[in-house]
Amino acid sequence: MTQERSLHVETAVPARSMELPEVVLGGEEAREKPQTRLLPGRVEVNWTLYPCYLLVLVSGSLVVNYSIDTGEWALGMVVAAWVLLFIWNWVYGVAYRYRRALIKYFSFLMAVVMGLGLAALSWEKGQPQLVAIAGELVARGEVTRLVWACWMMVVNPALLVFHMVFLGRGYRVKRLRVKSVDQAKTA
Fold this sequence. Notes:
Mean pLDDT: 82
Number of domains: 1
Number of strands: 4
């Protein structure tokens, strides 16, 4: 039994390892093709999503300002709605970058539906109407802050749809900067 163990120990030790010389493909005089890699989408996703984030933040701040000034809307619900819309836009961006199809389509659908719903709500509340203030109906004129917020909320889903249908499809080529062998040795 001890002889078997000693055999296993002796055979488990590797033989001498040998390092091979560095292999350089192509010579100094040969022109090498620049290395490229494919990235998803016709443009980088940030070119579409950052304007969406900005639109959500600006329209949300307009509606929050209106809610604070007039008290017609509950501030907490307004903040919750616009933060939730921002989160759905963010989830869409993360799912697009990491190629999670189910999450991407679900968050896209939620962001578009919620954005259009908030746009419709802002449009309806921004029009001239009778408002109950202190137990009385008071005629109120058009609220331009809510109309601007509405149009921003229409542009936000439009950008998402444009990204989903056109800009996010296909691939773009990115060239990689490769140091030559001489530059790599001196660095």
